[in-house]
Write a structure and sequence with these properties.
The chain is an alpha+beta fold and 136 residues long. The protein is built from one helix and ten strands; from the N terminus they run αββββββββββ. It is globular, with a radius of gyration of 18 Å.
């Protein structure tokens, strides 16, 4: 009985660590957010180790232009319990993003702000820092 319990525990740990590795492998790279109604269209980069970089972009839908109003934002990240935790030196800035979908070319995240208010962000895998603002 003890051997069976140890085997089950080891199997669960292996599956959990394998799931983390698979998600981290899929997450690695550049992800461009489909523009929100307010024009925000950030690009996120996950290095596959522990560093995330957010490149902020804003679309001007009327003039079909794009701007980058702020410098890139760097944080540490970890994946746990189907969430991405963005960790900053100022802990008050930390964020939790729930992974709703993660495929090789699509990422859907949800961020809860208030008890009954959440935003959903949809990303496409891209090569390099390339936003999805309509500019033509």
């Amino acid at each position: 009985m003890l051997k069976k319990n140890i085997y089950i525990a080891c199997s669960i740990l292996f599956i959990a660590s394998n799931t983390f590795a698979q998600k981290n492998d899929l997450l690695q790279g550049y992800w461009a957010m489909l523009p929100l109604n307010n024009g925000i269209a950030n690009v996120a980069y996950f290095d596959g180790k522990d560093t995330a970089t957010l490149y902020p972009f804003e679309c001007d839908f009327k003039n079909k232009t794009v701007s980058s109003p702020e410098p890139p934002e760097v944080s540490k990240y970890k994946i746990k319990n189907n969430s991405i935790y963005l960790l900053y030196p100022d802990e008050a800035a930390n964020q939790t993003l729930v992974i709703k979908a993660l495929k090789k070319d699509q990422l859907v995240l949800e961020q809860t702000f208030l008890e009954n208010y959440a935003l959903t962000y949809t990303y496409q895998k891209v090569e390099g820092i390339k936003n999805l603002c309509p500019t033509a």
